[in-house]
Amino acid sequence: MDYYFRSKTGPASPSPAMIRQANMRLVTNGLSTLTAEDGLIWEYQPENTAADWGEVKNALANQAALAIWVDDYAAFCRDSANTSYLAQTRFLLVPSRQAKRDLILNHDVNANQIGVRELLDLPTNWQFVGEPPFSVNGHRWNSQWPQQVFLKQLHRQGGWGLVADDSGQYNLSHSLAGFLAAGLPVVALRGSAAGDFVSQQQLGIVIDDLAAWQVAVAQVDEQSYQQYARQVTQWGARVRQDWFTKRALNKVRFHCHITVSLFADYSSIYRPAQFGLQVMDSLDTASFIQENRCSVARLGDGEIALLNGAGQVFQEPDPQLRRRLDEIVRAGSSSRLLVCLSDAFHGLDIFVPNAHDWWAGHLQAYAAYYQELAGRRNVYGNTMLTRPYMDFNQRQGAKQIFAAIRRFWQDRDILLVEGYYTRSGVGNDLYANAHSVERIICPSKNAWSKYREIEAAIKKHGQGKLVLVMLGMAATVIAADLASWGQVIDLGHLDSEYEWYQMGATERVPLRGKHTAEMNYDTDIAAIHDEEFQRQIVANLAGRSEE
Amino acid sequence: MTVYMSQTAGIYGGLISKKQADVQQVAAQLGSLPMSFYYYDDSQEPADQLSARLDGVMAGFSYGDDLILQLPSFMSLRYLNTLVDKLAPFRQNSATRLLMFLHDDLLFDGALKKNSPLVALLNRADILIVNSPVTAAFLAKQGVHDVVFRFFHICDYLAPCYQLPMSFNEHLNLLNGGSDIIQDLGAAQAQLTVYGASSQPAHRTSRLGLLDEDLTYYLMKNGGWGLLWPQLEREAVCSSYQLGVFLSATIPVIAKAGTVEADLVDRYHCGVVISSLAEAVEKVQGIGLADYSEYQHNAARLGNLTRSGEFTRNVLIEALDVRRQS
Known about the structure:
The complex is a heterodimer.
Chain A: E1 3-6, H1 16-21, E2 25-27, E3 39-44, H2 50-61, E4 65-70, H3 73-78, H4 80-83, E5 91-94, H5 97-107, E6 114-116, E7 138-140, H6 147-157, E8 160-162, H7 174-182, E9 186-189, H8 193-201, E10 204-207, H9 213-218, H10 222-240, H11 243-255, E11 278-279, H12 282-292, E12 295-299, H13 301-307, H14 319-331, E13 337-341, H15 353-365, H16 367-374, E14 379-382, H17 398-406, E15 413-419, E16 436-442, H18 451-461, E17 466-470, H19 473-481, E18 488-490, H20 494-503, H21 531-536, E19 537-540
Parallel strand pairs in A: 1-2, 1-3, 3-4, 4-5, 5-6, 7-8, 8-9, 9-10, 11-14, 12-13, 13-14, 15-16, 15-17, 16-19, 17-18
Helix pairs in contact in A: 6-7, 7-10, 12-17, 13-14, 14-19
Chain B: E1 3-9, H1 14-29, E2 33-38, H2 47-57, E3 66-71, H3 77-93, E4 98-102, H4 117-122, E5 127-130, H5 133-141, E6 148-151, E7 171-175, H6 179-187, E8 191-195, E9 204-206, H7 215-222, E10 225-228, H8 233-237, H9 240-248, E11 253-256, H10 260-268, E12 271-274, H11 277-286, H12 289-307, H13 310-320
Helix pairs in contact in B: 2-3, 9-12
């Protein structure tokens, strides 16, 4: 069995030495000797001709394992002739997480068949000690200089790297790799793959117009700059060691022949749990959502009780709702939709006494149902992700979880879909790191009765945005139904928990002017006069009677 | 950002040493450097002397570097804990991570009990590399929490690639089998070859063991099937090494239902899963050439990976890719 890397050597191609190091044979011309045991890693380049694609056809005819390596994802997707091979491809290596998401959502490729290169490399023996000096200088990448000399100069001068090459929404940036190698925090363009990576990994700042970089960097203090620089140091060291190319080559070769479970890397599901259920802890749940950019449907105690026939304060029983909830929880999770249960299955000692007793009763009442679910061997996320504070004995863990949740909307446009009194984020900084916030206001009770209007409004106003739904049980179904349309997260209870966490509350207290989870049942809630809040409302489906 | 991997010298460590050397060889291809321990009895060694010794062992280690500790290591827990203590400043002040690569032999260590000192050592890792999620669940039951697991799924067995024709027959090949399995198979009139056995009259025996470089050649030549029949509960969790040997020899496998390996055999169609030894004999007698060829073909495909260390390489890359939670 041999592995062939078929390349015409483009600007982002792995070097021949790297290919050899990964035990592959570099092939630049035609391939004629492929057998069923061999693996072909075929590098897509825009200038590839029909004859080049003919080699892919031959490889497939010989039943060789085919992997496609894509550096220019935008060009790859422009021509449907390219994407027509996706169904026969064992593995795809794409430049960025955005490209991966696009493949999952628009080309129906399974998430565990896609690898992400993440960054380009800039191999060099040069190393540095310490962070670069804080300054408001901005540097553009200059490929005319000898690379090592330029890196040293950048590091010595400090300041910011301006990621100005036009790598677009999907492709990787050479200058980003260069600045990281030099240890410099960067300024990147929002909406680009580089911008997304920078914002996600906290490697610098992301702005709408690079021409305004001076204004943006002037607002960053020295402490924040050094924090960015520390993050950059970690990533830069790997860029200088060719790590991302090495990793990509190994990944693509391994997955030519082996497919592993989508959930294999989330350790917490392997901890023994009651009924034998596989449920992630909150941090793994957050990581999975961040990694897969998936939608999230939560089924807490209320949903489980309702689908087993019990009534609820905010939602009247409805046979259709009950059936839909049952379908969702039985179907389990995928790369597009993470279905969550409340993780009371790893022991109740983590809860405060009231919650402990509540969950003990709940688990006893619905043991048969959970037992049956466990038999389906699904993997579930944890609904407790959005309520990490009040019910727990050890509340200090909430800080890390809130930080992980807030990363979901870092520099993104979000659409909140909430009950009339929910007013999520009003009076606190929960969504302060989002790029923009808009709201659809819905009935505070029985939102399920307006389910179709709500879904239509989300599709109208939420295109390309992260949609956060806080509508009780209706939110669960909406998130599941729209999972293949976009990213929709059922985020119930988060606002109340965040408020309590910020005030250091030790027991539930009502929140002024808004819905409070399991407290005020949306009665006697005062009106608010917040211009910003009013401006964010793009649709009101609550009706006049809610006034 | 150098990655160091431990290995123990100064002792004839048998199979464990071979496993360590194989993993080390794959890690070296990825750019890792060895951190060598020299085996000795440290029980009488004063603490300051041990500390000074480990300062020397770790002399090359720097901020941001990672250490992959291979276990079992033959070194004492005191030695290993002192080493991990010395990593503390690096882990506090930089992105340095401590990874532990757990060979299946560790699971048979009597010291691996619930909340034991060995479990405490495992809990000091950032990332544990084990064969499968079942092992992770087993370790969690012993009290291993708050670590990230990565899985190699099938244990590699580095071996040369021999070009021999497929040998379709009803032979069962057994590695290091206990006498009761051999007796049961004898009663079922199996054609059995036992490897690594001293003497088992009435059956073909081979003194070749897992340490013999030519083992895969003889297995291929003998043909037939590899038999995975764990007898202990813990063996059911981790006989991945024996699976790796059979795959490297490109012979299909008969695995006991309910074991981790049965799952893999089923998923990759590289053999059959059975519930009793009598069923094993019955199965091999009933399988025709066409089915055997398909199983053998799939075993050979996986064998290409186990012979060259692909599963180890993949898990090391996956594990080194895990960033520490700040």
